[in-house]
């Protein structure tokens, strides 16, 4: 195994807060709702902030970077950057029925559409 060790200057730079990064996400449309899945590894339920205002869905998540004092970091693949995502929703969402769950580092949001914007099936006589 090859491991590179950062210099003391690089270690100091790593402690400076970094700007948020955009997480990977998918948006699916069902007949009655949008389903948004956001990859947020290392984020706990308490560290997620979700807001929906003026048709913009704003998601922010902070990673837990605590480690035992006896550990010495040799390599870190995930940075300590927080996640931040803004999505404009171009349909009328029923804000009273929004639902969110976080499991195994994947945040799943269900954004139900108002009945007036759901597609209707029209029978032909």
How is the topology of this model organized?
Elements: H1 8-14, E1 25-29, E2 33-39, E3 43-53, E4 56-63, E5 83-88, E6 99-103, E7 106-112
Antiparallel strand pairs: 1-2, 2-7, 3-4, 4-5, 6-7
Q: Which features does this protein show?
A:
125 residues, mainly beta, Immunoglobulin-like, 4-stranded antiparallel sheet, 3-stranded antiparallel sheet, 1 helix, 7 strands, elongated
Question: What do these coordinates show?
Answer:
This protein is mostly beta strands and 125 residues long. It has a domain at 19-64 and 79-117: Immunoglobulin-like (Sandwich). 6% of the residues lie in helices and 39% in strands. The chain has one helix at residues 8-14, and strands spanning 25-29, 33-39, 43-53, 56-63, 83-88, 99-103, 106-112. A four-stranded antiparallel sheet has the order 1-2-7-6, with no helix packed on it. The chain is elongated. The chain starts with 7 loop residues before the first helix and ends in a 13-residue tail after the last strand. The relative contact order is 0.25.
Question: How many β-strand runs?
Answer: 7
Based on helices, strands and strand pairing, what is the structural class? mainly beta
What portion of the residues fall into strands of 2 or more residues? Answer: 35-45%
Residues in helix, %: under 10%
- Rg over alpha carbons: 20 Å
Spatial arrangement of strands, main beta sheet: 1-2-7-6
Specify the CATH architecture of the domain at 19-64 and 79-117: Sandwich
Give the mean pLDDT.
82
Q: What distance separates the N and C termini?
A: 72 Å
Count of alpha/pi helices:
1
> What is the element string, with H for helices and E for strands?
HEEEEEEE
What's the CATH topology name of the domain at 19-64 and 79-117?
Answer: Immunoglobulin-like
């Amino acid at each position: 195994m090859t491991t590179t060790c950062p210099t003391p200057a690089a270690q100091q730079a790593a402690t400076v807060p970094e700007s948020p990064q955009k997480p990977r996400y998918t948006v699916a449309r069902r007949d009655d709702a949008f389903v948004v899945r956001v990859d947020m590894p290392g984020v706990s339920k308490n560290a997620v902030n979700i807001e929906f205002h003026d048709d913009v869905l704003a998601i922010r998540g902070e990673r837990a970077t605590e480690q035992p004092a006896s550990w010495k970091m040799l390599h870190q693949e995930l940075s300590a950057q927080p996640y931040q995502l803004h999505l404009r929703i171009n349909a009328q969402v029923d804000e009273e029925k929004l639902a969110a769950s976080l499991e195994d580092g994947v945040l799943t949001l269900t954004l139900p559409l108002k009945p007036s914007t759901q597609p209707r099936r029209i029978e032909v006589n």
